[in-house]
From TrEMBL, chain B:
Its main location: membrane. This is Urea ABC transporter, permease protein UrtB. Keywords: Amino-acid transport, Cell membrane, Membrane, Signal, Transmembrane, Transmembrane helix, Transport. GO terms for cellular component: plasma membrane. It is a multi-pass membrane protein. The chain crosses the membrane at residues 220-247, 282-302, 314-332, 362-379, 446-470, 476-495. The keyword Cell membrane applies. GO terms for molecular function: transmembrane transporter activity. Residues 1-20 form the signal peptide.
Length: 366, 512, 245
């Protein structure tokens, strides 16, 4: 492909990269095996519980979100503290589809309206719910809505050269405002309670081992796809322009690059990936509510990337898995400690581990 | 027991007036024990007599507490019930008469609150017969607030009187009073008096003008009050972010620590009752110190290692905020703590023109302005402020002139944190004191600082007040949440035109 | 008479009441190498900022051929063919020397074009040529972060060559250089100048003399004197500004 002329890395680093590649392939194969092992008889030594499969499936979607954040932050230097909003919007889009699929099986038995609408006295479906009974439309919206929102916000912000912490604060305010808006009942998105009690997706009843396995594989495939896409971007000249923008944006502008367009492109791409992650997440956890918009969620996802090592795609994925593994473990053993640990992670990683876990593995140039 | 003594004293005091009155009074009282029609007449007569001694009797009758001896005599209220006594029963007609009579009698009650309530009740009754009573009561009344209510009620009574001249005067008086009650009364009278329709219309229009002015004034006040809350929350940030360029996401937690300090000062003073009403002013320096110490520790221990890396500072301080929040939750529990308002901060104040403002909001505005002035003074007038400005403008040169820049950094950060702590004292009055108190304010504070222009205290003031007022003006149309969203969108658009805020620094100084 | 490449007329810039440029006028002909000198705060860097779109003037005309530069942003101006070398060399530390040059190479600059970009043999040859010209061939695969100060300056000049601009703005190219490096830089600049218009801002009068071309002296935001180096050095007003401070 391109840029083969560039960077024939020193032999030791190349060897390390080779080892890492095999570790990754092994990890993916291991992940792919999980739903199969789940089908083994309960008394088998290799049996994997439903819990493990569903939790791992959830982490995979988090890893996609982490890739999205890393692409914008690690490469282009755009630290969004509102990526949780794109994730949640993707989730809401699929959630709307799942709500429509409940049909007359709801508590009120209304043929078209979801329960909460019957409860709130809606007569008919609001216009913005039209079309969500079709899966392809819902999926398209799960990607398009975050993309369009990112395009608008990004255009306004990048055009007026809002960068760095200013951009971070604006995106945080964005997700905060969306959270407040989605908490309202009259928005038509179920208010406080959001969506839940899903029944089926694509003709598959949810909450069966089959559905779990299918969603798991869909997530894994999406993670691989997203990883490939991000690799394609970061290894291209665009990736090098992004790094240049991150380190000295005005210099890039003097080279004739319209950095507004470049940043907008990568920010929208990142938002779409976050939307995809949300769309995969919701059917697996079976619920979406405005809490997903909370600013804390977005910033927590940023820490996954920081812990793994920003500016490296493997790092983002590694961070998503390791921090969430820690969270799952800690919240079950000592729930009160989790927030201390998470806060400590923020401090430790910024002070002592600026290149993350990957930085520990690869000790290259400063 | 006390009530009995008071009743007896009252009876004694009131037993002095003329004997004729006395006879009429006794005759009317005896009627209370008769049949329903007799009772109603007696009640009305007592009401017309205007003798305050009737009040306990009538009240007891209305409550079914008035007892009748087997021989038909009444047991004075408060006395022990003799054997065989039973309550005097009343019917609806008597009840209506009772309500009217009590209302009139209360106009001369010794308790001002009761007189005010009575005047209001007469206003609502719209009965021409009340006019003489009100005139009599007005002659004795000295409290301006009650007088104005009585005058209003008098106008209301005259409005339904037969005399046209009195009606005209009443319409003018009601128009000048400008309350919603007066407006309703006038509209009612318009239907009954087609001849006076034009005058009534003028009076109603005058009231409408006043009411809308008053609403505007009240919205403005609410906006300024929200603005000063934002100002308080943002001032500390204007120091740490605006002056030092440090993004402190734990700023909200500094506010929270200030609020908790206020709570603990209050608890500590519970044993010293005479000091308790002053716990809030005493909390101000305490909150400043606590937050400033924590701030200094954070700056020296953590933040100074990350100077020049704003995004990392942002993430790190967010983590610090989480730890502080969770620490408070673990140590002091997750439940809301209540900080009481001292008596001098309770209640509402009615300004001339009928604009009513709550005292605690008013104090917050005063406090916000005071803190702003204090911060300004600290920066402009003190040696520390001078060193701080020197370090901001040119760190290296300041260092060569012997300023210990590290110490100035720590002090500046401590100062900004301390100001946040003082904000916590104010917020304890209007918000729940809980571990996540600060999270609700941090985003708004950043908006204020960005909107006003980073590094400008004047910008912070104008930014806070503008955002506060705009929020409150939009609220009635859009609801609180959409108003917030609208403000955010407007801010995004505003930044398009002025990326560096209202009070931007320009030129080389701003490039760094 | 050919049309001038760069045409500044009556340009004023104000920062918070301070007039950084005061009705400045300057004309640069095609192929001309012009040196601009002046004391600190004379407005040299502000003039560069105005030409490259970083700062907007409050009055005056700024034209590059037929284009009104006051309406364009930095990227558009750079694409028109104006290259700028900064006082403090700014190269991309995280990228290799080769990648730095590749970014500067004249090519479509949109995000999708960058994503689909593949290095052609022709482009690679151009990069190799510039690597040779700047003497950086041996450091092609090193990250820019580890270059010496002089090498960074040359890399930046190399990037300007890759941009192939019609007009080159060079801000204090020899500040902080050794004598040997200064000589090398002067030679580089003279070689670049062939065919292009170059504006060099410099403090170092010896270096300006070495360039041996027309000199413009700025003072307090406007032109004080213009002509050969000998002419301006003997101009009493220039002497007063430089010595009478």
């Amino acid at each position: 492909m391109s840029a083969t002329l560039a960077s024939p890395a020193p032999p030791r680093a190349a060897a390390a990269r080779n080892v890492l590649r095999w570790v990754l392939i092994g990890a993916v194969l291991l992940l792919a095996l999980l739903p199969v092992l789940n089908r083994l008889p309960l008394d088998s030594a290799l049996h994997v519980s439903d819990f493990v499969v569903s939790v791992t499936g959830k982490w995979i979607t988090y890893a996609v979100l982490a890739l999205a954040i890393d692409l914008a932050w690690g490469y282009a230097g755009i630290l969004s503290l509102g990526h949780g909003a794109f994730f949640a919007l993707g989730g809401y889009a699929i959630g709307m589809h799942l709500m429509r699929l409940i049909g007359p099986r709801g508590v009120y038995g209304h043929p078209t309206l979801p329960d909460f609408m019957v409860f709130l006295g809606y007569r008919e479906l609001p216009w913005y719910w039209w079309g969500f009974d079709h899966f392809p439309f819902a999926l398209l919206m799960a990607l398009a809505v975050p993309g369009v929102l990112a395009a608008v916000v990004g255009f306004l912000a990048f055009r007026s050269r809002i960068t760095g912490v200013y951009f971070s604060i604006i995106t945080q305010a964005l997700t905060y405002a969306l959270m407040l808006a989605f908490f309202r009942n009259d928005m038509g998105f179920g208010g406080n309670n959001g969506f839940t009690d899903f029944k089926e997706l694509l003709g598959m009843p949810l909450n069966t081992p089959n559905a779990r396995a299918m969603l798991f594989y869909a997530s894994l495939a999406s993670l691989l796809g997203a990883y490939w896409l991000c690799t394609r971007v970061t290894r291209s000249k665009l990736g090098r322009v992004l790094v240049a923008v991150r380190d000295a944006e005005s210099r890039v502008r003097f080279l004739g690059y319209d950095t507004t367009r470049i940043k907008l492109f990568v920010f929208v791409l990142s938002a779409v990936l976050a939307g995809l992650a949300g769309a995969l997440y919701v059917p697996q956890v079976g619920i979406i509510n405005p809490g997903e918009f909370s600013p804390g969620n977005s910033i927590e996802a940023v820490v996954w990337v920081a812990v793994g090592g920003r500016g490296t795609l493997v790092g983002a994925v590694l961070g998503a898995f390791s921090v969430n593994a820690l969270k799952t473990w800690l919240t079950s053993v000592a729930p009160d400690l989790w927030l201390f640990a998470l806060g400590g992670l923020f401090v430790a990683v910024t002070l002592f581990l600026p290149r993350g876990l990957i930085g520990l593995l690869r000790r290259r140039e400063p | 027991m006390a009530r009995l003594i008071r009743a007896v004293l009252l009876l004694l005091a009131l037993a002095l007036p003329a004997a004729a009155q006395q006879d009429a009074f006794d005759a009317a009282v005896s009627g209370l024990a008769g049949g329903f029609n007799q009772q109603a007449e007696a009640v009305e007569r007592l009401g017309a007599l205007g003798d305050p001694r009737a009040v306990p009797l009538l009240r007891a009758l209305a409550d079914g507490r008035l007892l009748k001896r087997p021989d038909g005599g009444l047991v004075p209220p408060g006395e022990a019930a003799p054997p065989g006594a039973e309550p005097v029963r009343v019917n609806n007609r008597v009840r209506v008469a009772l309500r009217g009579a009590l209302g009139r009698l209360q106009l001369v009650s010794p308790d001002p609150a009761e007189r005010l309530a009575a005047a209001e009740a007469v206003f609502r009754s719209r009965d021409a017969a009340n006019a003489p009573l009100l005139e009599a009561a007005l002659a004795r009344e000295s409290l301006p607030r009650i007088r104005s209510q009585m005058e209003l009620s008098l106008a209301a009574s005259r409005l339904v009187a037969a005399d046209k001249g009195a009606k005209r005067a009443a319409i003018a008086a009601l128009g000048a009073a400008g309350s919603t009650d007066a407006r309703a009364l006038l509209l009612e009278a318009r239907a009954a008096n087609p001849a006076l329709a034009a005058e009534i219309q003028t009076a109603v229009a005058a009231i409408d003008r006043r009411l809308s002015l008053r609403r505007m004034a009240e919205t403005l006040f609410q906006g300024l009050s929200l603005g000063s809350v934002l100002l308080l929350a943002a001032l500390g940030l204007a120091v740490t972010f605006g002056v030092m360029g440090v993004i402190n996401m734990a700023h909200g937690e500094m506010v929270m620590l200030g609020a908790y300090t206020t709570f603990f000062v209050q608890e500590a003073l519970r044993g010293v009752p005479w000091l308790l009403p002053w716990s809030l002013p005493l909390s101000v320096p305490a909150a400043f110190l606590v937050a400033a110490l924590v701030g200094a520790a954070i700056e020296r221990g953590l933040i100074r290692h990350l100077y020049g890396r704003p995004l990392e500072t942002l993430l790190m301080t967010f983590g610090v905020g989480m730890i502080l929040q969770q620490a408070v939750r673990t140590l002091f529990g997750a439940q809301n703590r209540e900080v009481l308002s001292p008596p001098w901060m309770q209640g509402t104040l009615t300004l001339p023109g009928g604009v009513s403002v709550t005292q605690n909001r008013l104090w917050i505005i005063v406090f916000g302005v005071a803190v702003l002035l204090a911060v300004l003074a600290a920066i402009r007038l003190t040696r520390f402020g001078l060193e701080m400005r020197a370090v901001v403008q040119n760190r290296r040169i300041a260092a060569t002139m012997g300023i210990r820049t590290g110490r100035v950094d720590a002090l500046t950060f401590a100062f900004g944190s301390g100001v946040a702590g003082m904000a916590g004292v104010a917020l304890s009055q209007i918000d729940n004191v809980s571990p996540n108190l600060g999270t609700g304010y941090i985003i708004d504070s950043f908006m204020v600082v960005v909107f006003g222009g980073v590094g400008s205290l004047a910008g912070t003031l104008v930014g806070a007040m503008t955002l506060g007022v705009v929020n409150k003006v939009l609220e009635p149309w859009a609801g609180a949440v959409l108003a917030k969203v609208a403000v955010l969108v407007a801010l995004m658009l505003f930044i398009q035109r002025r990326p560096r805020g209202l009070f931007a620094l320009r030129g080389r100084a701003a490039e760094g | 008479m050919t049309a001038p490449v760069l045409y500044l007329d009556g340009v004023s810039v104000v920062f918070d009441g301070f007039r950084a440029l005061n009705s400045l006028s300057l004309i640069v002909e095609p192929g001309e190498l012009r040196a601009v000198i002046g004391p600190n705060g004379a407005g040299k860097t502000t003039m560069m900022d105005v030409i490259t779109g970083k700062t907007r003037p409050i009055a005056g005309e700024v034209r590059f051929r037929d284009h009104d530069l006051t309406r364009l942003d930095e990227a558009a101006i750079a694409t028109l063919g104006i290259g700028r070398k900064f006082q403090k060399p700014t190269v991309f530390d995280a990228l290799t020397v080769f990648e730095n040059l590749e970014l500067a190479l004249k090519a479509p600059r949109g995000p999708v074009a960058c994503l689909r970009w593949a290095l052609s043999g022709e482009a690679a040859r151009r990069i190799e040529a510039v690597l040779d010209e700047t003497g950086l061939a041996s450091r092609s695969q090193d990250r820019a972060a580890i270059l010496s100060h002089g090498q960074r300056q040359w890399l930046e000049i190399g990037m300007l060559l890759m941009q192939d601009p019609e007009l080159l703005l060079v801000d204090e190219p020899v500040a902080g250089m050794t004598d040997q490096e200064t000589e090398h830089t002067a030679a580089l600049l003279r070689r670049i100048a062939g065919g292009r218009s170059v504006v060099v801002v410099e403090h170092d009068l010896e270096f300006v003399r070495a360039l041996g071309r027309r000199v413009t002296v700025l003072h307090e935001g406007s032109v004080l004197s213009e002509g050969s180096i000998d002419h301006v050095q003997n101009d009493p007003r220039v002497v007063e500004v430089y010595l009478g401070r």
